[in-house]
Amino acid sequence: MAERERATALRRRGSQRRADIQQAALSLFTERGYDATSMREIAEHIGITKAALYYHFDSKEAIILSLFQENMHELDDLLDWAERQPLTPELCSDFLGRWIAHGARQGLRTMRFAVANHAALRTVLPLRQGGPLERVDRAAQLLLGPGAPLHDRLRVRMALLSVPNAVLAARGTEATEDDILAIAAQEATLLVGNLFPAPRLPVPEQAPE
């Protein structure tokens, strides 16, 4: 039992260290630029050795790729969940709210990096199938069903892109993550109009006292 507990604790520490590296790298890439940031600076930022950093990621490219892959996996999990539910107005409201909350919570820093490092991102993540726009298309089909008019499809796709739009609009302003989430939800509500109810954002989990 003790060996199993030690192995579990090591895995948790490894997962946390990996997440710390990802967030530190994103912050530095966004503030200083992807090309201007070195692996050594990422290690120093969180107080670990380069050897410890290279144990988890062998390059800056690997860090960015891991972040985008994790983001896509989380969207896939959300889409898989929704596709198992009956298509109702309430499901559409819940799904769009969860989609927006995910973008503001998990994808926001990644999108800020992408806005600040567009040229570098094209090199690290060359255009290919299976990216964010494919998830947007899948989500729009899920929300509208087959045969929806083009105008409705465009409105829903724009609602699904409300967080990236808000991130772009907020660049160079004092907008916080809460501001971006709020304006993205308002934009999506205006766009979906009478198609289904306003996106219902999930209630944030309360931290244990």
Q: What would your notes on this structure say?
A:
InterPro entries: DNA-bd_HTH_TetR-type_CS (IPR023772), Homeodomain-like_sf (IPR009057), HTH-type_TetR-like_transc_reg (IPR050109), HTH_TetR (IPR001647). GO terms for molecular function: DNA-binding transcription factor activity; transcription cis-regulatory region binding. This is TetR family transcriptional regulator. The protein is mainly α. It has 2 domains: about 1-60, Orthogonal Bundle (Arc Repressor Mutant, subunit A), CATH 1.10.10.60; about 60-200. It has helices at about 1-30, 40-45, 50-55, 60-85, 90-105, 110-115, 120-125, 130-145, 150-160, 160-170, 175-190. Helix 1 (about 1-30) crosses helix 2 (about 40-45), helix 6 crosses helix 10 and helix 9 (about 150-160) runs antiparallel to helix 11. The longest helix is centred in the first third of the chain and has 31 residues, at about 1-30.
Task: Detail the topology: elements first, then pairings.
Elements: H1 2-32, H2 39-46, H3 50-56, H4 60-83, H5 89-105, H6 108-116, H7 118-124, H8 132-144, H9 150-160, H10 162-170, H11 177-192
Helix pairs in contact: 1-2, 1-4, 1-6, 4-5, 4-8, 5-11, 6-10, 8-9, 9-11, 10-11
Keywords: DNA-binding, Transcription, Transcription regulation
GO molecular function, one term: transcription cis-regulatory region binding
Protein name: TetR family transcriptional regulator
